[in-house]
């Protein structure tokens, strides 16, 4: 059974919406770019068989508030409020840029029990770093000019979308939903940082047992970010951590596939 939507109040007064399901030890799910929590919904259902799962909408998304000015620290405080709501501590799963946010929360000494990060998109190689810097500049300028459509297009081009791909996406039913989320791309960019590589010095302070997951096949919808991109990021993260398990799974793409992701997550959190 699916639980009702609820809200918790973050330190700056921002309401953060979440859905609670299941019973057992607490798990909090942190979504990535252009996700309002929907992408993790199927995973929440799988994990709720053994855990109490909190699947939330990050600030600026769905029913959550968006108090300005934005800062990554505010998102860390959002997660702190959810951890308090969950009983004072919880396991945390983060996907994509949500994985980077989960790492920041653990590095800030929040009461995270065990941590799983999936496909964290740090840029490690020189070419990837250059592309990230160029994307950040395009994104910032587009949002400054109020060109939300172009901001979304810049994000899709980062993944390798062609002009034809963009033309097709702009006529698709989901485009308007993505436009509503597009301003939060600035938040995801801030979580990753200016340069793109993982913040090794901060990550070195994480003491929680951490599972770093990637997949074995590239995502056809993200040709500019092949599996090697995510492998390099995951290896750099794993190198910085003290208590880490590094694992590659058979998953169909970057978006969280519950059937592929749930088993290793369940095993790790149960351990």
Automatic annotation (TrEMBL):
Residues 40-255 form the AB hydrolase-1 domain. InterPro entries: AB_hydrolase_1, AB_hydrolase_fold, Carboxylesterase_BioH. GO terms for molecular function: hydrolase activity. The keyword Hydrolase applies. Keywords: Hydrolase. PANTHER family: HYDROLASE ALPHA/BETA FOLD FAMILY, PIMELOYL-[ACYL-CARRIER PROTEIN] METHYL ESTER ESTERASE. This is Alpha/beta fold hydrolase. The lineage of its organism: Bacteria, Bacillati, Actinomycetota, Actinomycetes, Mycobacteriales.
């Amino acid at each position: 059974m699916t639980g009702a939507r609820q809200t918790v109040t973050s330190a700056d007064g921002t309401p953060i919406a979440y859905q609670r399901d299941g019973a057992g030890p607490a798990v909090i799910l942190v979504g990535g770019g252009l996700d309002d929590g929907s992408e993790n919904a199927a995973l929440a259902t799988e994990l709720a068989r053994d855990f109490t799962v909190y699947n939330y909408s990050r600030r600026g998304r769905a029913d959550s508030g968006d108090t300005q000015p934005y800062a990554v620290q505010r998102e860390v405080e959002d997660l702190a409020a959810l951890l308090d709501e969950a009983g004072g501590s919880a396991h945390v799963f983060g996907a994509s840029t949500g994985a980077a946010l989960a790492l920041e929360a653990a590095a800030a000494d929040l009461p995270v029990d065990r941590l799983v990060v999936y496909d964290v998109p740090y840029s490690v190689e020189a070419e990837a770093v250059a592309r990230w810097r160029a994307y950040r500049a395009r994104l910032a300028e587009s949002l400054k000019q109020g060109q939300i459509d172009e901001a979304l297009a810049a994000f899709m081009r980062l993944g390798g979308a062609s002009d034809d791909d963009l033309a097709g996406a702009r006529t698709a039913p989901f485009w308007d939903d993505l436009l509503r989320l597009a301003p939060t791309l600035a938040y995801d960019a801030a979580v990753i940082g200016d340069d793109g590589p993982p913040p090794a010095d901060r990550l070195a302070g994480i003491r929680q047992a951490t599972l770093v997951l990637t997949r074995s096949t590239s995502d056809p919808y993200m040709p500019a970010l092949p599996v090697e991109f995510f492998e390099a990021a995951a290896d750099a993260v794993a190198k910085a951590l003290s208590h880490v398990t590094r694992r590659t799974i058979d998953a169909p793409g970057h978006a969280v596939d519950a059937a592929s992701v749930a088993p290793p997550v369940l095993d790790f959190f149960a351990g």
